[in-house]
Write a structure and sequence with these properties.
- It is built from four helices and six strands, in the order E-H-H-E-E-E-H-E-E-H.
- It has 125 residues and is of the alpha/beta class.
- The relative contact order is 0.18.
- The model has no long low-confidence stretch (mean pLDDT 88).
């Protein structure tokens, strides 16, 4: 889920977005905070939940980072440029579902290089 409206703190927007979809943010936060490879970044303008995955089996949680070729973005509240700038390293692909449509929703996949190219004016790498 990607949301970019900047009218209230990112965490408050995330709570509202989750509630609108009948979900509880605390469950995902706990899962992402407990997993050693998952990424959870919170700033006033950004909330990002992401994890490294093998694109071919994106729904499987990895125990070791070596096999990862993509970031699965579970939640992004803020701008994609801010999220990319916070990621500890670049992987070849990024993937996500829109509006929490898992299962059954289409997995969106994009090469990280093309995302960076589109965001170049905003992205420092």
């Amino acid at each position: 889920m990607i949301a970019t409206v900047q009218t209230q703190p990112a965490i408050e927007r995330a709570v509202r977005i989750y509630a609108e979809h009948g979900l509880v943010l605390a469950r995902d936060l706990e899962q992402y905070l407990r997993h050693p490879l998952a990424l959870c970044i919170k700033r006033p303008d950004l909330l990002l939940l992401a994890r490294p995955v093998e694109l071919a089996s994106w729904d499987r949680w990895l125990d070791e980072p070596g096999a990862a070729d993509a970031w699965y973005i579970r939640l992004l509240v803020g701008t994609p440029a801010a999220a990319l700038a916070e990621m500890p390293h670049v992987l070849p692909w990024c993937c996500w579902h829109r509006n929490f449509r898992t299962p059954g929703g289409r997995l969106h996949v994009a090469p990280t290089s093309s995302i960076i190219k589109k965001l170049r004016p905003y992205y420092g790498r």
